[in-house]
Specification:
single chain, mainly beta, Neuraminidase, 5-stranded mixed β-sheet, Arylesterase, metal ion binding
Length: 353
């Protein structure tokens, strides 16, 4: 009798795992092929060969680009090289990237940059906040940007027990930010988390005086950004293939207003400063990203979401490629008719729209 019960439980367990694996394959679009949508005036950016995972463009047209991310399960073409922050001046006729020098006293050898966000204070000093994964941990690094020297001066490393598996960040003020946690587990149990869709990831608010979870229940909270009027926060849930529109309250808590379903795996988000539209860097088929094959590489996709706060947001495709040009798009950002598209591990694209 005991053996029969054990076999029954084993069979039920295997059936559940099989069903969850099939569901996961559907959630990550394992069978999807992307239809090409490619603007005419685009070219790869020389000097960005090992990823351009996140991009933040200042109102002046200077673009910061994080590169060299080492992330579990994702390809990396230069595993022994530290990450870098690049700068690109989009006001130039033919803009080029330049690696920014980082001040001494910072552990550059273990620099592993992920999401980034900028903050400009009342004196017009620019600060760059970087999600960093030294030795596969999670910290937030604060740098001051020295524009004349084209360099970054490291000011502070922020650590906290809630800052685990941090993906992206949006800065609200001096040492105030929201950050997303994309996985609850930081070991082999991540796979179980994905298969069972545990929804234990969250959005964190950080300040020197208060650190707290302000929204939770995400399958995998990923990119995050803020509306031009600073009233709303947009959060990508990559495994749910959607964007959460959230209202920001005076106590920093967030309440969900709506969810915009996109049908593709949404990574980082930015906002067009001229229109308020959301730009989403997306993965049309994530199985190709996780099981990298040079003969069948992951594609890239960029969506534009207009009128996100309306009852019927308008969704259009700005760019789509099957991987022949650009692999694993993670972010898209615009400045005065110029579009930058970054990737997790591959190259980056510059387009004049």
């Amino acid at each position: 009798m005991g053996k029969l019960v054990a076999l029954t439980l084993l069979g039920a367990g295997l059936a559940l795992i099989g069903e969850r694996l099939m569901t996961l394959r559907e959630r990550i679009n394992a069978y999807r092929e992307v239809e090409p949508v490619e603007p005419q005036n685009c070219h790869l950016i020389e000097g960005l060969e090992n990823g351009s995972e996140d991009i933040d463009i200042l109102p002046s047209g200077l673009a910061f680009i994080s590169s060299g991310l080492k992330y579990p399960g994702v390809p990396n073409f230069a595993p022994d090289e530290p990450g870098q922050i690049f700068l690109m001046d989009l006001n130039e006729q033919n803009p080029r990237v330049q690696a920014l020098n980082i001040s001494d006293g910072f552990d550059k050898a273990s620099f592993n940059p992920h999401g980034i966000s900028t903050f400009i204070d009342k004196d017009q000093i620019v600060y760059l906040y970087v999600v960093n994964h030294p030795h596969m941990e999670s910290t937030v690094e604060i740098f001051k940007f020295e524009e004349q020297q084209r360099s970054l001066v490291h000011l502070k490393t922020i650590k906290h027990e809630l800052l685990k598996s941090v993906n992206d960040i949006v800065v609200l003020g001096a040492e105030q930010f929201y950050a997303t946690r994309d996985h609850y587990f930081t070991n082999f149990l991540v796979l179980l988390e994905m298969v069972m869709d545990l929804r234990w990831t969250y959005i964190l608010f950080y300040s020197p005086r208060e650190v707290k979870v302000v929204a939770k229940g995400f399958s995998s909270a990923n990119g995050i950004t803020i509306s031009p009027d600073k009233k709303y926060i947009y959060v990508a849930d990559i495994l749910d293939k959607n964007i959460h529109v959230m209202k920001k309250h005076d106590n920093w808590d967030l309440t969900q207003l709506k969810v915009i379903q996109l049908g593709t795996l949404v990574d980082n988000l930015t906002v067009d400063p001229d229109t308020g539209d959301i730009l989403a860097g997306c993965h049309p088929n994530a199985i190709k990203l996780l099981m990298y094959n040079t003969e069948d590489p992951p594609g890239s996709e960029v969506l534009r979401i207009r009128n996100a706060l309306s009852e019927k947001p308008r969704i259009s495709t700005e760019y789509a490629n099957n991987g022949s040009m650009l692999q694993g798009s993670s972010v898209a950002s615009v400045y005065q008719g110029k579009l930058l598209i970054g990737t997790v591990f591959h190259k980056a694209l510059y387009c004049v729209l």
